[in-house]
Amino acid sequence: MSDFSTRLERLYQGERPPASEWLDVIYHAPLEALLDWADRLRADLHPDNVVTYIIDRNVNYSNVCTSVCTFCAFYRKPGDPEGYVHDYETLFRKVEETLALGGSGILMQGGLHPDLKLDWYEELLRQFKARYRIHLHCFSPPEILNFSRVNGLSVREVLQRLRAAGLDSIPGGGGEILVDEIRMRRRTECTSQEWLSIMATAHELGIPTTATMMYGMGETDLHRLEHLRKLYELQERTHGFIAFIPWTLQPDSVPIGKIFPDRIAPEIYLRWFAAARLYLRNIPNLQVSWLTQGFDVARRALRGGANDMGSIMIEENVVSAAGAKYRADEARLVSVIREAGFIPCKRNAAYQRLETPVLAGAAA
């Protein structure tokens, strides 16, 4: 135990040992000690004992997609009778329903549509901004790359035009594991370098983004560490990632689930979660995935490096289609945060607090 205490303290202080030592600590250090040191770093980064959450909606404007990712049950191929593209009025109604429930923004993503032109997305963003006071957290890197290809524009031009139309920030979807050996097997559309380059360009243009990791689909432990390393190094250059959100494969309804049918065990999730906090010390916010792990695990993760509980997810279609079954309302998230000993505070997608945390936790 004493040996691991020393090694964990060095990681907490920012030492960056070789991968073999990281993996030894992740898998063999006492779990409570690993969680505790991650929690100490969380407290250094967020010393006011506040854990944030958001009321937003995952709006999928279309499920038509030219990619065939083996971990996805949401997409429909072009021409499929179950494919759809929502019209503007339908999307407006979804935003209005979100605002009526106290929402501050929308996370809007869709499939890689082969025909929609960039002006369709630009006009939609402009209409959103003209009609509503809302944060637009939209379009993952694979979508941005698809916009570039469909419209014959550079990624920079696409991002500049979307930002001018009202885009506020970009989600980290499509990250999965940033190792092409794995991405090619899973038929992920963009390469790891394309994903990282799109994020770097967004950061250069002043567009903040989140980063993600979706794991449990046959990657090795070294692949997971390589993913974290690439995020860390990009963040050192750009400082544009505002949060990291790791979650686990939901195998029930996706093709890859036939090969890897077992979910990541809660203890393994917590070990990698705490390790991510220690590794990605340059990304300020770490969000727990109650959607894929449930509330008991989420409560422990709040004492293992997390400072954010994520969204109540008024609507969520992609992960749910793959087999995630958990649901929450605002009261449930607030309750879990308070049970873990923190002050809950509502935020927007830019991790800007929308209320006074002391007042938010006055009843705790």
From TrEMBL:
<feature type="binding site">
    <location>
        <position position="69"/>
    </location>
    <ligand>
        <name>[4Fe-4S] cluster</name>
    </ligand>
</feature>
<keyword id="KW-0560">Oxidoreductase</keyword>
<dbReference type="Pfam" id="PF04055">
    <property type="entry name" value="Radical_SAM"/>
</dbReference>
<keyword id="KW-0949">S-adenosyl-L-methionine</keyword>
<protein>
    <recommendedName>
        <fullName>Cyclic dehypoxanthine futalosine synthase</fullName>
        <ecNumber>1.21.98.1</ecNumber>
    </recommendedName>
</protein>
<dbReference type="InterPro" id="IPR006638">
    <property type="entry name" value="Elp3/MiaA/NifB-like_rSAM"/>
</dbReference>
<dbReference type="InterPro" id="IPR034405">
    <property type="entry name" value="F420"/>
</dbReference>
<feature type="binding site">
    <location>
        <position position="72"/>
    </location>
    <ligand>
        <name>[4Fe-4S] cluster</name>
    </ligand>
</feature>
<comment type="pathway">
    <text>Quinol/quinone metabolism; menaquinone biosynthesis.</text>
</comment>
<dbReference type="InterPro" id="IPR007197">
    <property type="entry name" value="rSAM"/>
</dbReference>
<keyword id="KW-0408">Iron</keyword>
<keyword id="KW-0479">Metal-binding</keyword>
<feature type="domain" description="Radical SAM core">
    <location>
        <begin position="51"/>
        <end position="284"/>
    </location>
</feature>
<comment type="similarity">
    <text>Belongs to the radical SAM superfamily. MqnC family.</text>
</comment>
<keyword id="KW-0411">Iron-sulfur</keyword>
<dbReference type="Pfam" id="PF19288">
    <property type="entry name" value="CofH_C"/>
</dbReference>
<keyword id="KW-0474">Menaquinone biosynthesis</keyword>
<dbReference type="InterPro" id="IPR020050">
    <property type="entry name" value="FO_synthase_su2"/>
</dbReference>
<comment type="function">
    <text>Radical SAM enzyme that catalyzes the cyclization of dehypoxanthine futalosine (DHFL) into cyclic dehypoxanthine futalosine (CDHFL), a step in the biosynthesis of menaquinone (MK, vitamin K2).</text>
</comment>
<dbReference type="InterPro" id="IPR058240">
    <property type="entry name" value="rSAM_sf"/>
</dbReference>
<dbReference type="InterPro" id="IPR013785">
    <property type="entry name" value="Aldolase_TIM"/>
</dbReference>
<keyword id="KW-0004">4Fe-4S</keyword>
<dbReference type="InterPro" id="IPR022431">
    <property type="entry name" value="Cyclic_DHFL_synthase_mqnC"/>
</dbReference>
<dbReference type="InterPro" id="IPR045567">
    <property type="entry name" value="CofH/MnqC-like_C"/>
</dbReference>
<feature type="binding site">
    <location>
        <position position="65"/>
    </location>
    <ligand>
        <name>[4Fe-4S] cluster</name>
    </ligand>
</feature>
